Each structure stands twice: as structure tokens, then as C-alpha cells.
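Reopening this ticket.

The earlier resolution said the output was attached, but the attachment link was broken on my side. Pasting everything inline this time so it's all in one place.
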Amino acid sequence: MIMGLNQRRRWVLDVKLVVMLGLGLLLAMAQHTVQLRSNHPMHGIVDRVNEIGGPYIGLVMAYPPEESALITSRLFVHNSRIPFIDLAGRRFNVGKIKNVDVIYVMTGEQTVNAGITVQILLDAFDIRGVVHYGTAGSSNNSLSFGDVSVMKNVAFTGSWKWKAFKSETGQLPELDFGAFNFPVRGKNLLAKVEFTPSQLYSAGKPMEELFWLPVDSEWFDIATQLQDLELRRCLNDTYCLPETPKVIVGLRGSTADIFLDNAAYREFLFKQFNVSTVDEESAAIVMACLSNAVPSIVFRGVSDLGGGSDRLLSISRISLASVNALRVAAEFIALIDKNNLVHDQ
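Inline output:
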């Protein structure tokens, strides 16, 4: 009887062991199946990037001279193990700026490219916030070449309701084309357009219509410490600006898939919306971050006057504006790291 009882106990233990091993095997198979579903060829490498560093600051720019400014500055040091990953035709560079974990990527120009790139960045990597820097046209006569605007709000001014001739006044700001007829003002069949807000979708919230998209308020407060940052006046021995550029905080920006080279529209944007800079990406980047509840901030260096008195585009001006915008962005990254109480290595 005792022998039989012991045998039964051993048998029960053996069965439990087999069951446990089987469950472990099923779990391993289930995990393997999940990995098979996530069958992107770079899936494992992305996971490795998130393991070896981060959370990362996402640094994004749109225009080749803006990336050139970063490369020539030598501020960015690539990770020795995984220096970059190519996803959806975009190169995500892994490394550090001022000893802070950073992944930088060129979005390409215009809103669609900018929005798609930032969404890929946020979906794939462990990102604690997005810093965007680049060049911009100025719609504010108080801004000069090389100045850097630290935006507080940006609007997408490329979405219109084109209204019928002699239509009633709308709810949002309108542009009456007849008011800009040249040489004589008057009505014309183009009539007018009414600007429309953006539809912001974010997790756990109903869709919200916003015209002004805010950067992160805490990050903006930190960026105000950079107002006295010294910017470059000279690009090289042969090109210098007449005055030393400055950092200006709290301005508004306008984004549209339009390269602005028109004095009348430049004046309209400033008077109607009080925007100081115009570009083709900022609103899309801020909106993508708002949708994902990720902090963002924008630094734009003035490279042209958006159709103002001096309409000649200069490679030197673009380069200097890029260098100054990058300088502010890099100093901000160092500041945000100091102000971040929890930083995983």
C-alpha cells in the first residue's frame, strides 16, 4: 500500500511537470507567433535600440542644409553598436548630443512627410519628446536674418474653405482676394477663403478642433532660459550679418504646403494672425506629438523674409539660419536633460 501511494505521488508530480513544461512550450510558441506577426525585418534591431539607450529625444529636421548643420557641427555622436536604422525610406540615426540619448531623422519637406516621419519615430522608438529645428521665412519685420524663433503656438494655415462670390462673412479669419488686387483694389471672382481649424485626434479623448496648436508648456518654460544665448553672426570669413542674431520666445508660427514669396500675403498673415514665421512642417510635427501625448518644441531660424523687401534667397543665409536654430535646439536638449528628474540610461 505504501509503495503504491508513493508511486501515485511520483506519477502526479510527473504529470504536473509535464503540464508545466507543456504550458511553458505553449507560451514560448505563443511568444514566437507574436514575433512572427511582427515580421518587419528591422523589428529585432528596433527592440535592441530601445534596450541599449533611451528614452530618447527625437530630433527632427526637414531640409538638407538643416541636417548639414548638424553633421558639420559634430555635436551628434553615432552609437557605436547601432548607428542608424532605415525605416520606410527614412534613416533614423541613433546616438547622443551633449551626452543625451538622441535619435535624429530627416522628415523631408512639407506636412505629409513631416507627420508620417514623426509618427514612425514615435511608434518604433522609446521617445520622451520631440525637438524640431529648421529654417523659416519671416512675416514679422522685427525679425532679422539669423534670428531664432521659439514658437509657443503654430497654426496650419493651408486649409481653406473657398467661398462663393459675395458670400457672407464666416466664423474664422478670411482672406478677401479683392483686397489685394493690384494696382487697384476691388472685387474679383476669386472671392475669398475662410481658414479652417485642424482636427486633433488623441487617445482617450474626443476629436477636438483647434486652430492654434501649442508646444509643450513645460518645455516652453525651460526654453525661455535660452533668450540670452549667443548666436552666430558670421557663417565664415566672407559672410557676416550686419547685426548679431537673437533668440525670441513666445511667437506664433504658420505652416502650409506653400513656399511664401509674396509680400501681400506675408502682410496678411502677420496682421490677421500675428504670426512671425512661415514654414512647411512645424504644425504637422506638433500635431503628431499632441496626438500621441508626447512633448514637442520648435526652433526656427529666419533665412528669408517671405516675400518682403529682400526676396533674394541666399545659401549663406539658409546655412546660418540652420546653424543658429541647431545651436538653440542643442542647448535646449542639454537643458531638458538637466531638468528631467528621471532619466534611464
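Reporter confirms the inline version is readable. The longest strand covers residues 127-138. The longest helix spans residues 2-37.
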